[in-house]
Amino acid sequence: MGEYEPIIGLEVHAELLTQSKMFCGCAVVDSTITPPNSSVCEICTGMPGTLPVINRKAVEFALRVALALHCEAAETSVFARKNYFYPDLPKGYQISQYELPLAEHGGLDIEVDHTVKKVRVRRVHLEEDTGKLVHETSRSLVDYNRSGIPLLEIVSEPDLNSLDEVRAYATSLRSLLRYLEVNSGDMEKGVIRFEANVSVRETGSNELKTRTEIKNLNSFRAMMRAIDFEIERQSEMLRQGLPVIQETLGWDEALSKTIPQRSKEEAHDYRYFPEPDLPPLFVDPAWIVQIRKELPELPDDKRQRLVRAYSLSSYTARILTEDRAVADFFEDATKAAPDIAPQKIANWISGILFGILHEDNLLLEDSPVSPIALANLVTMVEDSEINASIGKLVLEKMVHSGEMPEDIVEAGDLAIVKDPSTVRTLVVKVIDENPQQLETYLAGKSGVADWFFGQVMRASRGKADPALVGKVLYEELRNEESRRAGG
């Protein structure tokens, strides 16, 4: 591992997909497309004399996540005021949870290099999101549309010891949130953000060193680059005998380095105290039992089931189950083509279809290709109605047009030519038009037969049945040899 090893914990902030905000009736809107400050009220902008009310759906969504992470859900939790002053925080404090969070002591299994590791989850709690600063050349503007949106904070223990583990944990957690339908996972819109606590120590040591916190990492790329930089920066300081200062850092993408923002706050710096306008949150144990029963099949369980039920490789099952929509698409396609090996359908989805969608910057749910349409296409290839290369071209057109594969094949006259007389006509024509190559073949250069095969396939625009072409070509070349021997 080297002379130093990293110790990393992640704090994940995920906006919940509720219709209204955490403590008021304002609609939750997409702040990237909605006019600024158009979904605000006296409560979410912190006007004096207003009273917050807890959003029941947000509590339900938070419990859904906590139970999926195997946390102990608290029957009683308390909201607190977290005091700090920043332009995007209209009240001058944030309503959050501190001493008595909604849930604690959970965990999430990750797999790196075929080894499963449990990452402990310290706490899961509810809070409200802040507004959004928009920086211009000579001024900064504030949009409060995001202020007050329910925000779920998931805090891990410092159990991550490599960048691969960080990526595995972050992607697994994002996948879990999407499976539970509590967060869209759209990092470009800032609905899920990461903060990393990073320290390094001598390899093999059990001592926890001074850590730094990197704030507001809103993409996997930024998170990985920032943590990687910070690991190397701290390692170099230890090599030089310099102390690591506990501080809050930002990531500067342009400079590719972490930038100090302020000295790291401790809890007492925020002057936490119970929110006087909100009573303690009491959760009926029967409600917790009901939410647990209603949890969907989660990624790990689905992955294991796909391996057992469809004889998929563990790698393929992992790719398919990263997104619930993809896993559902695969199962629907498999049901529509019961005679086709599930692994073949999985390969078309994870390989060819994903590649086409990536080129067009599309998600599977945005594609017009249905599971039945893909099943029909794979069946046509497996039944040798079309070959694989034509199948890929057909799939590309399906993605762009939404047409069924059989209609595309018929309209384009793309079906494989299996008529022996038609293939024989093509073979004889190619041989007759290339007398020099024929002489070379008859002179003992048997490899020229492969060249003839390629020319026949080209003449048929790739539509001739390769096995039939090989058979007929062999017969015609043997006929030429017989005629030469007889002559």
Descriptive labels:
alpha+beta; single chain; 20% strand; 3-stranded antiparallel beta sheet; Arc Repressor Mutant, subunit A; 487 residues
Provide the fold topology.
Elements: E1 4-15, H1 56-68, E2 72-73, E3 76-77, E4 79-83, E5 93-97, E6 103-112, E7 115-128, E8 132-135, E9 140-143, E10 150-156, H2 163-179, E11 192-202, E12 212-217, H3 220-239, E13 247-252, E14 257-263, E15 273-274, E16 281-282, H4 285-293, H5 299-310, H6 314-321, H7 324-336, H8 342-359, H9 371-382, H10 388-401, H11 405-412, H12 420-432, H13 435-442, H14 448-459, H15 466-486
Parallel strand pairs: 12-13
Antiparallel strand pairs: 1-10, 1-11, 2-6, 3-16, 4-5, 4-15, 6-7, 7-10, 8-9, 11-12, 13-14
Question: Can you summarize this structure?
Answer:
The protein has helices at about 55-70, 165-180, 220-240, 285-295, 300-310, 315-320, 325-335, 340-360, 370-380, 390-400, 405-410, 420-430, 435-440, 450-460, 465-485; strands spanning about 5-15, 70-75, 75, 80-85, 95, 105-110, 115-130, 130-135, 140-145, 150-155, 190-200, 210-215, 245-250, 255-265, 275, 280. It has about 475 residues and is of the alpha+beta class. It has three domains: about 5-290, no CATH class; about 295-410, no CATH class; about 420-485, Arc Repressor Mutant, subunit A, CATH 1.10.10.410.
